[in-house]
Amino acid sequence: MNFVEELKWRGMINNIMPGTEEQLNKEMTSAYVGIDPTADSLHIGHLVSIMMLKHLQRAGHRPIALVGGATGMIGDPSMKSQERVLIDEVTLRHNQECIRRQLARFLDFDSDAPNHAILVNNYDWMKEFSFLGFIRDIGKHITVNYMMAKDSVKKRLAAGADHGMSFTEFSYQLLQGYDFLYLYEHEGCRLQMGGSDQWGNITTGTELIRRINGGEAFAITCPLITKADGTKFGKTEGGNVWLDPERTSPYKFYQFWLNVSDEDAARYIKIFTDLTREEIADLEAEQASDPGARPLQRRLAREITTMVHSAADCDMAIEASQILFSKNAAETLHRIDERTLLQVFEGVPQFEVDRATIEAGVPAIVLLTEHAALFPSKGEMRKMTLGGGVSINKEKIADPNLVVGLDHLIGDKYILAQKGKKNYCLIHVK
User: Which of 84, 100, 155, 378 is catalytic?
Assistant: First the structure.
């Protein structure tokens, strides 16, 4: 597998330094990607660079994931309009461990293969540097003129005095450049990869290596991912789409990918899965012949949810997604967790009913008119029930006086009632 060719057909190369492909074709090459550790979970904005590392390892090269513990204490000015909130070392170490567990779903860290992945934290080598030592040994090799020419610096300085750039942020590219130098010297790392906004920081590293060691190092950046309508990728009304299931449930995660546009699905399936060119071409042909079936979105959602979470989590997310239409919906209701249940029926009317009422048993006609106002009158409820239009927990009821009791509870606390095809209410039994 030719790594550069693989990235090219997947649309994952924005810039590549001359000589990079020749280096990768010559020998097993170590390459790194920097990851911001300011949260204890990665989000889907990180997935492009993670997939670059995954493809790199598949091609026989050695991935290095660098957690920016030191640089995370400063903040990268690239593409930012203001300085970020900084974090302490205890939080950084916790975040690092959480990030490693997530990366292990994509990369082989633990085998004895020569190209097994490693995780490093730049705080481990930066914490011993004194300020004087750094500016004497490293800072003297890069001119202020060179640093000022970077787009990220020029953009922030052009914002004026009120929104300019602190010296702390100005030094960021030098620190990131030193990371590359350190990994070049200690891990034989010859390549750094990242988003297109990182090109200036990455090339500062290649320049440091050239000036201090006389060595040659390389760079690849990928395009910044946007949606077809030009809006930011990876954001929803609720904020980031996280890889941590406690922050973004597998159901919500699956739904995010299932609901992308046709145009985005065609791009994303190349970037965020390791499906082959032939498999994707077949899916594109299916999509063209039957767009309503949305095979691209369904396969994309399945592949990436399985990769990030598990096959079991993905199957449950699919089941939950189909709960409104599935013939087995009654069974699924009793299998899904409470969080997923509430997300599936987010926005439907909810009512609270005393547990004692359900424990004693209550006729459905009373429950759905007096306790939970799904129907305005008992007459309407009776008429619709006899017409087959009322369900409890996705099972049609034939008798409006059916006694609803504890055995009807979902997860020992909910009852789902349905009127007609589209009107639901969720009864919370307390």
Answer: 84
pLDDT digits over 358-389, tens only? 999 999 999 999 999 999 999 999 999 999 99
Is 46 labeled as catalytic in the residue annotation? yes
What single DSSP character describes residue 84?
Answer: P
Contact 27, 85 (CB under 8 A): no
Query: 48 near 14, Cβ under 8 Å?
Result: no
Examine the residue annotation and report whether 80 is marked as an active-site residue of this protein: yes
The tens digit of pLDDT for each residue in 283-326 reads: 999 999 999 999 999 999 999 999 999 999 999 999 999 888 88
Q: Is the pLDDT of residue 78 over 70?
A: no
Q: Report the candidate in 31, 57, 67, 58 with the shortest Cα–Cα distance to residue 192.
A: 31
pTM: 0.86
Residue 227 annotated in active site: no
pLDDT per position as a tens digit, 119-159:
999 999 998 888 898 888 888 888 888 888 887 788 777 77
Whether 428 is catalytic is no
Catalytic residue among 38, 91, 343, 350: 38
Neighbours of 172 (CB within 10 A): 23
Is position 235 annotated as part of the catalytic site? yes
Which member of 29, 71, 176, 248 is catalytic? 176
176 is catalytic: yes
**H/E run at residue 396:** strand 395-396
